[in-house]
Design brief:
Elements: H1 3-11, H2 18-30, H3 35-48, H4 52-63, E1 79-83, H5 92-101, E2 106-110, H6 120-124, H7 136-146, E3 148-152, H8 159-170, H9 177-190, E4 195-202, H10 211-228, E5 231-238, E6 246-248, H11 250-260, H12 266-282, H13 288-300, H14 303-314, H15 319-323, E7 333-338, E8 343-348, H16 350-359, E9 376-379, E10 386-387, E11 392-398, H17 404-413, E12 415-418, E13 428-433, E14 436-439
Parallel strand pairs: 1-4, 2-3, 4-5
Antiparallel strand pairs: 5-13, 6-9, 7-11, 8-10, 8-12, 9-11, 13-14
Length: 440
């Protein structure tokens, strides 16, 4: 078999065989297929597309290109949750303890921040002494002992995806549904869970800017799961407004703790409950109604919060800051942002809000950047709120004045104003399963 023929077949719109896809993924991972040849095939895929079977096969062989985690030694149905990323999205820190406290094992690998979005591992590492790197044996032991562990992704999980993503990034082939789906799902498949709930964000702070594209992505990933034998549900959720009021690392952990105690922001609480309910449903804990009641009870009884404390302790973290959040290290500088005019906030460019938090030190501007765990933005007003000129609408937290003015300008310019109250948008737009799309 020659890579030339594989490229030519896809260029001409033919369906690639399993053998051709396997030949490409294995050859490129080993370095036997050159970057310029892989680039040509990616561009052919970009223009000609792939059918659902091709996409599933591509995903499967990318997943098999490196380590595959075997979770069979952990009892029960293992359900994972993946978010496509957003601003203020700290749902893993809420959902995972809820689900684990209901008797469903959570053995989760999470990522770090990407661009304007925050990463779960970065948030967890804002907890003093918190470990996010473990051997597989240590990881399994924690899950078997307490029912939950959230760690960083393995260095050799789906290495083909790392190579292909880097190539797509520089060859203008990022925006293809099949390639995006294969990239996301290959890591989830390799991580070994039996079922996956996808939180696919849409809006100004998401990678998928409109609902229709988000639904198409969900359908592709649900189809991949079906072909590979995994149960997958996709929830389309709003990211046109930051989720919750905290954008950062330590401050998002604090907001997660409040939510687990039943005192969190309404939007964050609702999205977290919906995701947790669907995870319990995939774990066969009952009907959707029964699972929703279990989620409510896990929060109201304190079991979900207790499970977070157990996880932090098991992973070496300082539980004192979880029990008393005032013990988290505070930012050296708190700067109040005041409204430049009176009126309703009618829109927030959520991506710009995320970038403003990165400027403060809450995210990475380069791969090697250090994160200031105490930095970030605490919103005092959001879309739909009426504010007077001069009213404080956000606190900027940082340890350095270097980019404070630039961050403030970025944040203020992210806001749109109106003299009329904007119509509220739903938090949950649709649910995508193998049975179809249900819009809300």
């Amino acid at each position: 078999m020659r890579i030339y023929d594989v490229i030519k077949n896809k260029r001409d719109g033919k369906v690639l065989s399993d053998e051709e896809i396997k030949f490409f993924v294995e050859g490129y991972t080993k370095g036997e297929i050159k970057d310029y040849q892989a680039s040509a095939l990616l561009m052919a895929i970009y223009f000609q597309g792939m059918n659902s079977k091709e996409t599933a096969t591509l995903t499967e062989y990318i997943a098999k290109s490196g380590d595959e985690v075997d979770l069979s030694s952990i009892k029960g149905i293992k359900v994972d949750k993946h978010s496509t990323g957003g601003v203020g999205d700290k749902t893993t820190l809420i959902v995972a303890p809820i689900v684990a406290s209901c008797g469903v094992p959570v053995a989760k690998m999470s990522g770090r921040g990407l661009g304007h979005t925050g990463g779960t591992v970065d948030k967890m590492e804002s907890i003093p002494n918190m470990r996010t790197t473990f051997t597989q044996e240590e990881f399994f032991k924690i899950v078997n002992d307490i029912g939950i562990s959230v760690i960083g992704q393995s260095g050799n999980l789906a290495p083909a995806d790392k190579k292909l993503y880097a190539l797509r990034d520089v060859t203008a082939t990022i925006d293809n549904i099949s390639l995006i789906s294969a990239s996301i799902m290959s890591k989830k498949i390799a991580a070994g869970s039996d079922a996956i709930v996808l939180d696919i964000k849409t809006g100004s702070g998401a990678f998928m800017k409109n609902i229709d594209d988000a639904i198409k992505l969900a359908q592709e990933m649900v189809s991949i799961g079906h072909h590979i034998g995994r149960k997958v549900i996709g929830m389309i959720t709003d990211m046109d407004i930051p989720l919750g009021f905290a954008i950062g690392n330590a401050i998002e952990v604090i907001e997660s703790i409040h939510t687990l105690k039943g005192n969190g922001p309404k939007d964050l609480t609702e999205v977290s409950k919906v995701l947790a309910t669907n995870m319990l449903y995939l774990a066969e804990k009952g009907s959707m109604e029964e699972c929703a009641k279990m989620v409510d009870e896990a929060i109201s009884s304190g079991r979900a919060f207790d499970k977070l404390v157990q996880m932090v302790k098991a992973q070496g973290g300082d539980i004192n800051v979880i029990i008393d959040t005032d013990k988290f290290e505070k930012a050296k500088i708190t700067h109040e942002v005041k409204a430049t005019q009176s009126g309703y906030i009618s829109h927030m460019d959520t991506e710009a809000c995320g970038i403003a938090s990165v400027m403060l030190g809450a995210g990475r501007e380069t791969v090697d950047s250090d994160i200031d765990f105490s930095a970030g933005i605490i919103l005092k007003a959001k879309v739909g709120d009426y504010v007077e000129k001069g009213q404080v609408i956000a606190d900027l937290l940082t340890s350095s004045k270097d980019k404070l003015k630039e961050s403030e300008d970025k944040f203020i310019n992210s806001l749109s104003w109106s003299q009329h109250k904007p119509s509220p948008k739903p938090l949950i737009y649709a649910k995508v399963s193998i049975d179809g799309v249900k819009k809300y």
